[in-house]
Design goal:
Chain A is an alpha/beta fold and about 260 residues long. In chain A, about 35% of the residues lie in helices and about 25% in strands. In chain A, α4 packs across α5. The N terminus of chain B is likely disordered. The interface between A and B is medium-sized, with 31 and 27 residues. The structure holds adenosine-5'-triphosphate (ATP) and magnesium ion.
Chain lengths: ~260, ~325
Amino acid sequence: MLDAAPPDTPLIQMLDIDKQFGGVHAVRAVSVDLYPGEVVGVLGHNGAGKSCLMRMLSGAMTLSGGQINVNGEQVDLKTPQDAKRYGIETIYQTLALANHLDAAANLFLGRELKTRFGNLDETRMYAEAKDALHQLNPNFKNLKDPVSKLSGGQRQVIAIARAIYFQAKVLIMDEPTAALGPSETAMVADLTIRLKNEGIGIFLISHDMHDVFDLCDRVIVMNKGRNVGAFRIEDVNKDDILSLIIRGTLPDEWTPRGQSA
Amino acid sequence: MVTDDGKSKLGFLPTGSTLHKISALLTLILLIVAFSFTSPAFLSVNNGLTVLLQTSVIGLLAIGMTMVIITGGIDLSVGSVLALSGVVAGLIIKAGVPVAPAMALGILAGATCGFVNGIVITKMRITPFVATLGMMMIARGIALQLTGAAPISRLGNAFGLLGNGSFFRIVEMQDNGFPKVVFAGIPYPAVLLIVMAALGAFLLQKRQIGRHIFSVGSNEEAARLSGVNVDRTKIWAYTASGALAGLAGMVLMSRLVTVQPNEGVMYELDAIAASVIGGASLMGGVGSISGSMIGSFIIGVLRNGLNMAGTSAFIQQIIIGIVVIGAVYIDQLRNRK
Ligand SMILES: Nc1ncnc2c1ncn2[C@@H]1O[C@H](COP(=O)(O)OP(=O)(O)OP(=O)(O)O)[C@@H](O)[C@H]1O
Ligand SMILES: [Mg+2]
């Protein structure tokens, strides 16, 4: 595939990001960038610091060090609202749903639609939520049940629908298909490609090598909080990635695969 | 944490929260029937009005308490804040200010106490239990200090209007020259309770703030990540609770036409019991104003009926204590499922 040179300013630049919790150094001097219409995989073993890195971009966590640029300008993402204002939407690994509320209330939580008198516009929120959810899962029922009653997959669908409903420019997907069945997983893969083609930049955290090689343009691998490798997906194969994830280094005889081929 | 409020798989059966409300309502009716047997005077119009008056104070407190409980918090300061608000209003009237603005300032004093609770809880990260326990001591202390622990009386007839007046009261002059009350009327406090309960229910069900209150109690982290201003929502709830405690203080002191700095001790427990009996969960995320109103009437009827039956104040304490523990126990059973 011959792709044009990426535009000069990346959508997102994370530079020398650090995160410490007391003695725990969760993220160490990690730099990564993201261009429009690109899917960047963030890989690593459990506890490698992937979620922490992404949560700092979501405004859910403060930086201990480093800098975040959006469209080339330094930003200070103090709250999730700040990040959303820059068009950064997140599907959290924990889903971040309020169990006692129904699907529509969760989808619009914090950004409720209102009538002209300022009351909650339940009818419109319900209709929009129904549309958004049915795009991902045409069989989605139980729209009026509290989400605590729904299956893990249904809950994940709500979290995904919420992130894409508000026209993200940057989408962070933290293991978005962990609880999904094969058809929903395929749906999310299609969706990812569609959004990418619309010019949205996507960070994808996944443990599924199949998804990673199908969807990502580039990957970064984290090991014990460090960025141990950033590659175009053509330059690595599954074994290289696994070696990086597990040992933190490439196989000894490694050369960029894309060039040798 | 996954909670189950018991929605039935069979669609025609009422859902968990409705079921809870219906059982609370049945309890209330059962209590009324039982008490009308133990004391004949219980079911009189006059006594009905007394219950309504007593319940209006608990009910006003329970509206604010319910909002706070839905956020996953608790407000132990309402009894003391009620007294402090009354003292503030009383002292201001004594300084020569008319009743209406003085009462407004009393309510404002209550709202301020609630606001301080909210700030201490959100900004200093003190648990609601400890923060409002502290406010309970502070507000009571200020009320007693300002008055030297003495009641403020001779506040004028206008001060007694809110607690003692009523709509549609019909009084006929009899031939012997004495007035005869044909219809006792609907007491102002009861009307006030209905208005505030309707307003509270509207805010909780139809407005963004209500939605946010539920979300914060349901999953605080999820609410934060979704863009809900968690601190602001909590501060709002505690301020509302304080303001309603102030309003309850106005009603109570007005009914006595005297400001008593010792009034309202332990009222917070009645309000908490009313909310929990009405289906609010101390774990947060669940509760309703309508349920809490039924709960308030259960507490009000229980106290009044025990009084009428001649039960001693000590036994009453024991019974209400058992009811509170029982209600919280049922709440936990619901959550454990
Ligand atoms: N709020 C927190 N307080 C303290 N330590 C934390 C916190 N969040 C994460 N950590 C620690 O930071 C490290 C990185 O966690 P992180 O959640 O980023 O891992 P991850 O790469 O997303 O793992 P997984 O694949 O299991 O989701 C872990 O050691 C974790 O214990
Ligand atoms: Mg993670």
